[in-house]
Amino acid sequence: MYQRRGAQLPAVAMVGGGQLARMTHQAAIALGQSLRVLSASPDESAALVCHDIVLGRHDDLDALRRAADGAAVLTFDHEHVPPRYLETLLAEGVNVQPPPSALIHAQDKLVMRERLASLGAPVPPFSAVRTVSDVHAFAVEHGFPVVIKATRGGYDGKGVWIADTAAEADRIVTVQLEAGTELLVEEKVEMRRELSAMVAHSPYGQGATWPVVETVQRNGVCAVVLAPAPQLSADLAAQAQQLALTIAEELGVTGCLAVELFETTDGRILVNELAMRPHNSGHWSMDGARTSQFEQHVRAVLDYPLGDTTPIAPLTVMANVLGAPTTPHISMDERVHHLCARMPDVKIHLYGKGERPGRKLGHVNVLGAPDGSPDDTDYVQSVRRRAELAAHWLSHGVWADGWDPHTAAHSEEQ
Prior knowledge:
The chain is α+β, with helices and mostly antiparallel strands. The protein has helices spanning 19-30, 61-68, 83-91, 100-107, 109-119, 132-142, 166-178, 234-251, 285-288, 293-301, 332-342, 377-396; strands at 3-4, 12-15, 35-39, 52-55, 73-76, 126-129, 146-150, 160-163, 183-187, 191-201, 207-209, 213-218, 221-227, 255-264, 269-275, 316-322, 347-350, 360-367, 403-404, 409-410. The strands form 4 sheets. Strands 10, 11, 12, 13, 14, 15, 16, 17 and 18 form a 9-stranded antiparallel sheet that branches. It has a 5-stranded mixed sheet with strand order 1-4-3-2-5, sandwiched between helices.
């Protein structure tokens, strides 16, 4: 029941105390707002920096009520709040943004697929899975391999399985159904790459778009984002942006919406996932756009006029700082010190998390020179290399190119 409150009630309450809430808090400060955070523990990323926290779980209705008390709006840094609780809060007069009628499409992948298909949005062929025979029937029409997904709760590659054969599909489905997991099956898309179209939508109905970006996944986790997506045709980019705006309008989304997309090998785009909150694919905007996704989310849920999303540089590359297999012997503070010395232009964003393998500890943004172009492969690779080099140093405490921070030179082996 612990609760820490500031003297002034906030305009915005956010469910979840992770890094998204932490960075939303930073944006809220600049707008003269105070962010209240419902955090599961006092050492979560946002709880470490917010002056106004409510300790409690997102699936505890009383905790949700305490977080919403006195706030102008209740919003989210994740989509895991039970819909029935959000409906209860609405009935009690809480301004929930995005509303549960929209949020359900980010909570349940089958609901999302069915609704988008009804709207005519491009989605991979899919089917609900109640028994293993449902996967067999789907494979007769679409063939193997297939992708089997948990309809709820999956993220960062969790809750997703690829089955290359009927026997493999049987094993996956049997185990998951016995565990009570609700499933769907969909076609494994022949894709060129993954894209993300980030937009914002306000209750008033105003929309705004950022450039479509390319996301690079490693082990199911977003590792790199290139903004805008290199060598993406203007027509396909416009199609993706319009698709995201249409989805936001049709579903009644408020705040930020990330529409994760597959770009297929034959030049189409298909919707993969939806996220109704700030999203990893939009972190580049903190330094690479006139209005970041975090400021925009606060504006949107408060129904303020939306900000200018124009990019500041021809290309911005975001690289996630993912925990190394073994924690480096030098402290993160020392790593930051050396990175600032070697690459003073790199923008560092750390989340205040303890280190463990694969954990998202932070991210870096690198802006390309103003005379470059995202269609220039050498330019893109140069900016990307610097971002990944910086992120690797922060996570591993070793320069991947052999740089020696003491002699300011590459090692002889390199």
